[in-house]
Amino acid sequence: MRFSKRKILMYDVIIIGAGGHAKVVADLVLKTGNRLLGFLDDNKDMSEKVLGYGVLGRVKNCFGYNAGFVIGIGGSHERKRIAERYGLDYIALIHPSAQVGIGVEIGEGTVVMANAVVNSGTRIGGHCIINSGAVVEHDNRIGDFVHVSPNASLGGDVSVKELTHIGIGAAVKNGVSICGGCTVGAGAVVVGDINESGTYVGVPAKRPE
Q1: Total tally of structural domains belonging to the chain
Q2: Who has the most CB within 10 Å: 16, 81, 103, 163?
């Protein structure tokens, strides 16, 4: 996985996907000074334009463009499928209102949304979503294809493995490790390690019986 410490990458950009998350990514592309060429989407019923930008064709048409790509799809498993199928120039994007500390490493294809905070020493993998207002404290280790939802908070020295989704407003205590393939429900509070994949909800967060 390639990492970048640059906050702004200047590219012609194509977004894969044209749904709700892609619209937020489109705003991110423009806010970072890049040029949005349009979207690629496999939905045959998709409108010809989204936010005034063209839907250029199906995802398989991606190889015909000299551009940087971002996967604008919220589902982690679908992002992984596309990322692994198409060996494209995936770029990381960081909203100008986000706060990113020193020594932070961010993987290709990851997006850091408006008002998010990523503090020093954190390493974020590829194709992650650090959503609006999320807080990722110091020295976190975030695996590939993780989604940290709006206003979720991860304490210091937290480890979140691949394909895990941290729900809206959830909180994770300092030093906790969460295994891959988990879903932490909205508003849940994780106070101890999670070592088995599944869905965890409540305060403290537990698997539903």
Answers
A1: 1
A2: 16
- What are the Cα distances from residue 53, in Å, to 146, 158, 186? 28, 39, 33
| Residue 18 lies inside a defined structural domain of this protein | yes
**With 0-12 CB in 10 A as exposed, 13-18 as middle and 19+ as buried, what is 61?**
exposed
Kindly report, residue by residue over 100-130, the tens digit of the pLDDT: 999 999 999 999 999 999 999 999 999 999 9
Phi, psi (degrees; rounded to nearest 5) at 4: -135, 140
Domain hosting residue 32, numbered range: 3-85
204 preceded by cis ω (within 30°)? yes
Report in angstroms the alpha-carbon separations of 35 from 32, 188, 195: 9, 38, 42
Contact 145, 159 (CB under 8 A): no
pTM summary value:
0.93
What is the set of active-site residues? 138
* Residue 119 covered by a domain: no
Give the whole-angstrom CA distance, residue 180 versus residue 194.
Answer: 9
